[in-house]
Amino acid sequence: MEDFESLLRSSAEAHGHLCPGQVIGVRMAMLGCALIGLDDPRSPAQIKKLIVYVEMDRCAADAVAHVTGAKLGRRSLKFMDYGIMAATFVHLENGLAFRVVSKEEARDLAAVYAPEVAGKAAQQLEAYRRMPDEVLFQLQEVTVPISALDLPGPTRRKTACTRCGQIVRDGKEVETDQGPLCIPCARGAYFIALRDVTVREALSAAPSRSGATAGRP
Amino acid sequence: MKLETIPVEKAVGLKLAHDITEIRPGEFKGAAFRRGHTVCDHDICHLQKLGKNRLYVIELDEDEIHEDEAAAVLARALAGENVFWDEGPREGKIKLKAALDGLLSVNVPALAAFNMVDEVMCATLHTGTLVQRGDLVAATRAIPLVMKRGVIEKAAAIAQAHGGVVSVRPLRRARAGAIITGSEVFHGLIQDRFAPILARKLEALGSSIQEVCYAPDDTSAIRDAILQALGNGCDLLLVTGGMSVDPDDVTRNAIAAAGAQAIHYGSAVLPGAMILTGRIGTVPILGVPACALHHKVTVFDLILPRILAGEEIGKTHLALMGHGGLCRDCPQCTYPHCPFGKGA
How far is A127 from chain B (nearest CA, A)? Predict the structure, then answer.
């Protein structure tokens, strides 16, 4: 694995800016990987051994993904929408798993670890560099029961929703008295459907962008 | 934890679960009874006089730890180099002491992080305090009588991650070269008072002046004097005077011309704003402003022990000294028993 400063630099570049969350995320991922025995998680030899659960969609999540190489599309990155600055690192072969939680008191300690730095964000950024892991993180050894249907690899199963016909992958259908349903049909969705439209119709109605004519391929 | 309370008059034969403190104002403060003491008939009245009408009988669970054991775990983690304790926990508390004469170094962030853990505490003297062998430098305790082992381990891990929180660094015995600048002194118009002051301050810290050299307000002359002292084996260079803003004040230029590196001019301390710090190779060099002639204590007194303890004083140190760096210029100076220099 690259050293901390190199990882922080490349992570900040990938994320778009350098911030305290990047420092937390990079350190969280470096610690998590070390704990489960991965020294180069992005290498071809190790990339398939790791699953990472992130519990927040904040800057630190991008840093964790960057350092570990875990990706949503590879099914090696799982997003648990808990709103907690934490991530769990699972080694699929040796079974080791650790949950690393960023401690809230580290925020209050920033002023003592970097007293010479002015500005809240800059002070946190520098202080989080200096704090030992024991101060920055709370650690839990955990086990994560992972269904075979959630593992990386080819699609295990496809099922059609008996109400709308939508194909549902990897066992995400909901079994009901009426047969398997997709989650939107069974429990409702994050969106509210207004009507079905054609691509041509939708593009022609799209707002034009700086002189470009909308809707013309 | 199984906790039972029994009336003191029925406690004969019971082993005490913790030290019991007695305070007789102006006379005595300490443990009247130690943990593990077996209560006997004639103790009952004494305990009642101490306001103890009931006593605890405690059975610990496996994941719990008694305050005495906890204090020992904490003390082991907090004690850095040259810090020890020679008495077991008393009243749940352990006192950490200096193992040698030197400069107390407290890792202030580590101390804060340690004390952020609930139910443990550590209090220290100020970092940078000069201490003698055997001096009390810090004390720690677990606050409740019984607590979870995990909490103690967490606090200890924080202290250990920093390599301990309190340490004492010995002062080296420097052989200083004093370069006293000023044409008025060099030409004998006035008598030098700087050399005796420097000598006294160095001797108080176990160091000495190896040679004193006088130079006029001339860059080359001062530079040559610095290089000569260096060549003669001086391992600390103190250049006095000429640190201000007059056209005759050329000491800064001379120090730079002598090849000093890591030069920083100016500190957030009064008196002593015009001090210069740097080094030539590994030899520290200080430009000491004239305020050291007129004030009993200046920034020089704050940083000299640190330098002798091996610290390289830089811009950040000098900036952080601003907090607490204002001398009140009391008619009766009580330094070091005053706030001057204690904020950083």
Answer: 10
